[in-house]
Amino acid sequence: MPAVSISLRVLAGAIISVLTVSGCQTLDDAGRVIGRADLVNDLAARLDQSTELTYSADYQLPGGRSASISQSQDPLRAAYTYPGGKLTVTADATTACDTRAKKPTCTLDPPPATNAKPSLTIFTEMNRRGLVSPPVVIGLLTAAAIDPDAAIRQYDTTVAGRHATCVEVGQLSDAPAAGFDACITSEGALGSFTGTVDGTEIEVALSRYRDAVEKSAFDLPPGAGLIDRRGTPSPSPE
Fold first, then answer.
1. 69, containing H or E segment
2. CA separation (Å) from 224 to 65, 66, 122, 138?
3. CA separation for the pair 205, 225 (Å, rounded)
4. Which long-range contacts (CB under 8 A, 24 or more apart) does 115-118 make?
């Protein structure tokens, strides 16, 4: 299984900007010349498109486990459900829930500042539980693009009945990583990912995609205990 580290704080948000990265070129199996910047920008643009969509994506994980990513636009919010936990990002709070115990516990932290992007650190626990987020994948693609020794092969496939463009990355030397494999669907959803993130082997594959989201996708687990760390705003001066 290839190894990957996300210590590179390249793209630090759930709402991602498309990067233009210059770099070397490589050949795919058909002998086509692939510009690293073009390849990264194409996949980054697809992932970025997903931030403008309302959608739900279900994923299959090893051992029969499952995970999901849901996003809506009005209001803008996202939810990530994974084995043993759930993360929601809304205008009111960034909420991380631990669902392993009989009584779930949710910790509410302040939401990202207006027009700011959440730190990649909010996805750390999710990585450890087996689900990788689009912002993390973008950061890894960018790290590969700026590594002159990286070998990048592009190929197409079908995931859950949807066309996807993929990259197989190996021989990384300028980043603490060995390689990874990622596929992005035409809609911009993460189609699949194989690699090791934060020391955890991750293997996810899209099993279902829908252009709609259930309102309950953003609900906290029933009966969850709440730890609110958002604080109380200071009173306005007289």
1. strand 66-73
2. 22, 21, 19, 32
3. 32
4. 116/13, 117/11, 117/12, 117/13, 117/14, 117/15, 117/16, 118/12, 118/13, 118/14, 118/89, 118/94
| Residue 40 structure tokens | 């990264």
Residue 232 pairs with which residues in a beta bridge? Answer: none
Would you state the torsion angle of the CA atoms of residues 196, 200, 206, 209, taken in this order, to the nearest 10 degrees? Answer: -120
Q: Is the dihedral of CA 168, 174, 177, 178 positive or negative?
A: positive
DSSP 36-47: HHHHHHHHHHHH
pTM of the model: 0.80
Q: Please give the average pLDDT of every successive group of 10 residues along the chain, which has 238 residues.
A: 44 31 39 57 77 93 97 92 96 95 95 70 91 87 77 91 91 65 93 88 96 93 94 49
Q: Which class is domain 25-228?
A: mainly beta
